[in-house]
What we know:
Rossmann fold; 3 domains; 12 strands; elongated; six-stranded mixed sheet; alpha/beta
Amino acid sequence: MKEKATLKQIAKQLGVSVSTVSKALNNSPEISDTTKAKIQEFAKLKNYKPNVTALNLKNRQTKTIGVILPNMLNSFFAKVFTGIEKVAEEKGYHIITCISNESLEKEINAMELLSNGTVDGFILSISEQSQKEQYFEHFIDCINDGVPIVMFDRVTDQVKCDKVIVDDLDSAFDATQHLINLGCKKIALLSTIDNLSVGQLRAKGYYKALEENKYLIDENLIILTEASDEFDTKLEALIATQKIDGIFALDEHSSVSSLKLALQNEYKIPEDLSIIGFADGVWSRRLTPSLSTVSQHGPEIGETAARLLIEKLENKGTETALETTVIKTELRQRGSTRKLLNQ
């Protein structure tokens, strides 16, 4: 293996000071272009690599971001991660990723592991268990220790930090309103995420749309659960006993399951039944018919969260106001909804 040269060795062999070598390698305007080119070429020839650890200690910065995701199998979180990674790479930051797997204990352990000087800050979405138990002390302690956090998607007002969210309530209202505009009279509401803040906001959007259109709320058409197994049993009963003409599903599982089960029960989609799902994974497009969805723009959420955190890190010591950035969603109409007559 080729031995790596040090600044001292390069300086000695070229007959210049260590300071001159350092400045030349950092493109300092104090060094002439000729000298810089000579030193940089020689350093490359000698396989010189900067000591990143030493630089980080000197600058009191690791240039590393901790990312904690609740579930990597969820296509939304995967898309958010691509956005975080893109901006981090552009700005010269590394990423360490942990998966809480919806566990409060794993979330706490990940933060304890990384917040002790390993990362400069965190980008995260709160685990299911943390939201269910309303326990957020580990986030507050981290911020009090001077390690900034940017939360996305699943957030809480109990933690004062920068946040990136989507307009869950408004977009759920718009999706339900779209089904009403199509002429749907009996619109089912389906969810397996009723224990999450985003699920509750989306349900409020559905109720608001029905109320504003003077639709009676029929509890027989509403399934709000926290687990997919319980949901599947209730959905089978709903499809078997109720004649519905619209479905608004608040997550990927309920979206895909409702479309498949409706087809099995000989509903013609979209002629008899229009379905909109709050999900935009690859399955939405591959189903037959393809699923109309509320797209959350995951990559944009990730990019925004990364920029917020990096700006905070690079202006450390400067008092900046906390921001909550709202990313607008988009209703993507595909094969599971009829076209409006005026379109």
